[in-house]
Amino acid sequence: MKNKLKVIVLIICVLCLCGCGTKEKESISSKQFLEPLEDSFTVNDIKDNYSFATEAYLATYQKNEIKMIYTKGETTYDIKSVFADEVSNVLSAMNKSDKVETSKGDNWEKLVASNEQNYYYLIRVDNTYIYSSSSLNSKAALKKILKQYGYR
Question: Do residues 126 and 76 touch, judged by C-beta distance below 8 A?
């Protein structure tokens, strides 16, 4: 009886540590997006380019060595559509030998891809979407920013 109780307690602890198997991510706000970019990126408000967006920003670093777009839509449906279009655009630039990874959870989907010249990281969480691209030379810097968002 004691061993059964220990096993049950162990299983409960493991489930709690693993988040009970949930695959949800928390979206970031535009303020959280812009914060790590303030000192070294050129940031432009591009909301007027998207009829469905409540917020949209383009951030570039050193002549597009790194390019990031944050978009928050009125609905998740709008953002899913934009995400799907951008995934298609990135995949059309890839060859069969290029590295492409996709993953998704309950409220998010992600594409990570790289070829001989560029690195791409696209993520949609609820009604927000971040498009990121960089040269391979700037890949580590981009990954560092994405880690600050909690997306790596």
Answer: yes
How far apart are the C-alpha atoms of 26 and 57, rounded to whole Å? Answer: 19
The amino acid present at 88, given as its one-letter code, is: S
DSSP class per residue in 124-137: EETTEEEEEEEEGG
As given in the structure block, the two tokens for residue 137 are 């030379």
Q: Tell me the domains of the chain and their CATH numbers.
A: 25-149 (3.40.1000.20)
Q: Can you give the C-alpha Rg of the chain in angstroms?
A: 19
Global pTM? 0.82
pLDDT in tens, 100-142: 999 999 999 999 999 999 999 999 999 999 999 999 999 999 9
Rounded distance between C-alpha atoms, residue 152 and residue 143, angstroms:
7
Return d(Cα 41, Cα 9) in angstroms, integer. 49
